[in-house]
Amino acid sequence: MKPQAPFDTVRVERDGAITTLTIDRPKKLNALDYATIDALTAALDAVEADDTQRAVILTGAGERAFSAGADIGDLAGSIAGGVDRALREIVGRGQGLTRRIENFPKPMIAAVNGLAYGGGCEITEAAPLAVAAEHATFAKPEITLGFPPPFGGSQRLPRHVGRKLGLELILTGDPIDAPRAAELGLVNRVVPAEDLMPTAVALAERIIRHPASAVHACLAAVTRGINLPIDEGLAVEASWFATTVPTAGVTAGLERFLSRTRTM
Questions:
Q1: How confident is the model over 85-98, as pLDDT tens digits?
Q2: Spatial separation of the C-alpha atoms in residues 79 and 145, rounded to whole Å
Q3: Catalytic site residue 13?
């Protein structure tokens, strides 16, 4: 892999058309301080602007943690500054990051290499795809600090797993293991730790073999339509289908199919 941008707490490495972003604060269990949230956002901006990069894998440094969530030092300082400051610095940054991940126009895979608590779990919820190591754990411990999840978790988790299961995790703060996370649909699959990154790369490669225009349209249609009434969702589907009709990807795909048919 080729190392890229000079962020202090986020490693950026490119391998062909796949960029890997690694939250690099292992001594802090890859906690999301404000500098790291800003670095992740900037790194995603750079990947989106680079047409040679087709997919993103997001993981954490070390073997213990994907991310332990928000950095409590930053969070405590913001809360001490009052409601307006807390909303701006905690909710604004946190929801901004998870919204960016959820709406990213290229496929993103969270490779959960350890505990994913709080904001780390919320990133997993926001990512369109996720794989987890067997030792990974997930939790929503914000209630133990006296507040609800502020990075979007109170909304995305119940949409993923259902209201009652989501509330159980949010209201108890209790962790769940990787197999349970897969059972609930929070991650796509669970693999041995040594297979985590190869599995994420293989999944990315299976996606980016398809035209970028089609991948983007599929991501956007699902993300923007999933929480709408069905008729509105179908309209979203139609609009994204329309964007692909004049593309080279459709022309090439139809020609491949028709040429195979002609030779049968």
A1: 999 999 999 999 99
A2: 12
A3: no
